[in-house]
Specification:
The protein is an alpha+beta fold. The protein is built from six helices and five strands, in the order ββαβααββααα. A hairpin with a 2-residue loop joins strand 1 and strand 2.
Length: 134
C-alpha cells in the first residue's frame, strides 16, 4: 500500500473526489479485519489504525460510497459508523483480496480513465475462475 494519490480536484471552489480502487480494496480489508457485525467503529479510527498513509477525508468519502453501493453496513447516525461488510461486500472482497488477481485487474484497467466496481467485480470473478480452472 502506498501513499494515497489524493484524487481530489477543485472546480469553482468546490472539492470533488474520484474513486480510488486501491483505497476501496484496502478499506474493505480493514473493515473485514475490524468488524464483528455488532459494534460500530469509526472511519477515523480505521484511518489512524489501519490506513495511516491515506487522507482521512478520502477514507470518509470512499466509506460513504461503499455504504451507498451496498458494500458496507453503517450505523443509523452516519456513514462514519461502520458495522460490517454486507454479503455483497464480502463477495467482492473475496474475489479481489488475492494480490495476484488484484494486480491482473489493475494491469488490465490501467489504460482506462475509469472503471466501475461492477466491472472490477466481474473481472475478478472471471480471473478467480480461470485460476481455479472452472
Amino acid at each position: 500500500m502506498g501513499i494515497s494519490q489524493l484524487l481530489k480536484f477543485k472546480k469553482e471552489g468546490l472539492i470533488y473526489m474520484k474513486l480510488d480502487h486501491d483505497l476501496i480494496r484496502d478499506l474493505l480489508m480493514a473493515y473485514e479485519k475490524k468488524a464483528n457485525g455488532r459494534t460500530n467503529f469509526y472511519v477515523e479510527d480505521i484511518a489512524k489504525e489501519c490506513l495511516p498513509d491515506y487522507d482521512v477525508e478520502a477514507i470518509r468519502y470512499h466509506s460513504k460510497q461503499l455504504a451507498d453501493a451496498g458494500y458496507v453496513k453503517v450505523g443509523t447516525k452516519s456513514s462514519d459508523h461502520i458495522i460490517d461488510l454486507t454479503w455483497k461486500g464480502h463477495q467482492y472482497l473475496a474475489n479481489i483480496k488475492d494480490d495476484n488477481i488484484w494486480n491482473i485487474i489493475k494491469n488490465k484497467t490501467s489504460s482506462l480513465s475509469g472503471v466501475t466496481l461492477d466491472i472490477i467485480a466481474t473481472m475478478a470473478k472471471e480471473e478467480v475462475k480461470k485460476y481455479l480452472s472452472l
